[in-house]
Design goal:
By secondary structure, this protein is mostly beta strands. It is 7% helix and 38% strand. A six-stranded antiparallel beta sheet has the order 25-36-27-32-33-34. A six-stranded antiparallel beta sheet has the order 26-35-28-29-30-31. It binds 2,5-dideoxy-2,5-imino-D-mannitol. The site of 2,5-dideoxy-2,5-imino-D-mannitol (DQQ) has 13 residues, from strand 1, strand 5 and strand 14. 2,5-dideoxy-2,5-imino-D-mannitol (DQQ) binds next to strand 1, strand 5 and strand 14.
Length: 644
Amino acid sequence: MASSSDLENPNASSALPYSYTPLPDGEQTAEPAVVLHPKKAVAILVCAFLSVGFLVALIGNSGPLLPKNLNTNVAPSTVATPAKTTPLSRGVDKGVSEKAFRPKLGADNSFPWSSNMLDWQRTGFHFQPEKNWMNDPNGPVFYKGWYHLFYQYHPDAPVWGKIVWGHAVSKDLINWRHLPIAMETDEWYDEQGVWTGSATILPDGQLVVLYTGSTNESVQVQNLAYPADPNDPLLINWVKYPGNPVLVPPPGIDDKDFRDPTTAWKTPEGKWRITIGSKINKTGISLVYDTVDFKTFELLDGVLHAVPGTGMWECVDFYPISKQAENGLDTSVDGPGVKHIVKASMDDDRHDYYAIGTYDAYKGKWTPDNPTLDVGIGLRYDYGIYYASKTFYDQNKNRRVLWSWIKETDTEASDISKGWASLMGVPRTILLDKKTKSNIIQWPVEEITALRTDATVFKKLVLEAGALVPLNLPAASQLDIVAEFELDEATVQRLNGADVAYDCAQNGGAATRGALGPFGLSVLAHDGLVEHTPVYFYVAKAVDGSLKTFFCADQSRSSTATDVDKSIYGNIVPVLKGEKLSMRILVDHSIVESFAQEGRTCITSRVYPTKAIYNNARMFLFNNATAATVTASVNVWQMKSADI
Ligand code: DQQ
């Protein structure tokens, strides 16, 4: 969890923010920023504040996005034209939805990406295969001293296609060793793809896997697989059960709507139980099966849960969460101190939704605590790009860990030029929020802090309304940032009401000013803000005096390229009485993962700057509110690259 000690690293030197010589536009220079004497720094800080009017005008300008005197043309070293024709994504006709980002019809897709720009997008500490396409995490498990991550992988191209199970192992969830493909499309029952599945550890330590096969006729069936050598901690070789498939779509379920079996958990009668996502008409459902041997299954009457209007449920996840304890729970744990989470990935809108509820183990049914926040209509794990996620119980550290697929939001042509597509989010621990009791909290696994190096600390900086302050950092492409913000209490009290109907996505992003927001950090920013990605809070005050806080990430100015997604993401974040506003941001080249209030609301962004890259990436603190002063404290660590 973030703690105030995160902001008071005694080993880190306290640095004032200061300005730096603007770099020539459109050029990448290896020269480090000049470190100034503190007195000079203060003087320049004053200048920075004086120039705020200009800069605020720049970001607040509703006219042309870019100032006229900036040259936005780039001289590409290589134009990103695919050398050969590569098969396009073929998900829809195979029975899953479109996997690639498609720019809006009529969008300008002609941005001249240089190889230098594309190379920079590869990350330093996010899991990804060496090349080609990846999607959902599969069968994550801790087995004989190793964390295993299997994943949907297309070995032949950086677009979705004939999917196999890629495989990697790690001792710490951060550094990975790539292993050979675990399962290929070599049987009639998975000829069109070895799709998503989950692992279960049996009481005697044996491991079994259930996965969806897309058959030679594109029917979705469930198959059983197990390690060829259970004594091999690396689990290199896998055996597919000769009696596969073990499940075919039941009557009333379409051949292409039956996929992604969960990890199994124990029933009160001592059987194993799994759930599988599906739909009937527009109602998303999760079917329930009991088994004793993972070879024959009994379909239960009714479903675990159903929500009308939500469409196909992919990658359903079901797990217990403790009401009191700070540890995770094994999937079979149940009892009075336990709530249960249902998560489903909504094929219709491509987001992962969860709800907290009560599980009736005798009936095999789950009921949400709050029906207005049911699965698919309420809370999301993440309000940015985050899909097909899956948790596992890590018996090594008694925690529940969440993996998720983070797709690209640039064009397929760029992915082909890069030779790779997709990342995994940094794995997150999941706990019930003991304070609100109405949401979970997600936080990067503790191991990630081992990559932290070179801290820079900014303490209690006072940001007047409209302030924009460059933060001097040795580099800004791989960062772990922890920040706290305090709004000037007197102003908050004095205001009668402000922005009650705020909505991150609809209200113009970080450039739109209100009385109490936006304020936060802008990452992957270019000197003149020709490119930047603000991550910020926006506080709204109702006439009854109550406050509502929003947490947003604005990609609208993240890139001068025209062929990438520039959505503005965000949602409300609960802030309890006496709490400071806090955020943590992991920046890793083309991914920005943001966590508010210790992980109550999370936003993952994919951004593709063309200028704010390499040594031209910067970071700014800003307070674009019109009324309130904000006091900010920020710790920034450079992040080493993981061994991946
Ligand atoms: N991805 C798999 C399916 C799953 C989908 C196919 C979710 O099993 O439903 O690659 O992204």
